[in-house]
Amino acid sequence: MNRFLPFLLLFSLAGFAQQKSVYIINGREVDSAEMVGVKIKKIDVATGLRSTGMHERGGKRVLIVHLEDEQYNLFGIVTNERGKPIANAKVDTVQTDACGHFYLKGVKAGSRIMISRKGYADQFIDIYKRPDDLLTVQLRKK
């Protein structure tokens, strides 16, 4: 018997993808498009079958997923609506430099990062997997 559940969950995701589905990752509801490339925590089958949490809610199928305990280093840039860099924007625990760049070390999968700057609406980014490229965050004026 396979000791790990990731394949079971991936097959479940594939089956749900063709139906109206809701995905809950680390306690937050996400769009199915955000599920691409997500690494799922390895757990034994018996535990997985008890804790997967597949059920229906409001006519939609719900799959609850727990992510692997991974950490990522994130590089990015914060810009305004015209693509101009925003200096001194707060990105979680750091501030952007004069060119709008930021670097966050050791961000856990499933983290929610807040980006803010006086005069701009706050922006939130959920990190479910390692970004493929430089993160670009666009803030809008209030």
TrEMBL record:
Keyword vocabulary terms for this entry: Signal
InterPro entries the UniProt entry points to: CarboxyPept-like_regulatory
Annotated signal peptide: 1-17
Name listed for the protein in its UniProt record: Carboxypeptidase regulatory-like domain-containing protein
Lineage, uppermost ranks: Bacteria, Pseudomonadati, Bacteroidota, Chitinophagia, Chitinophagales
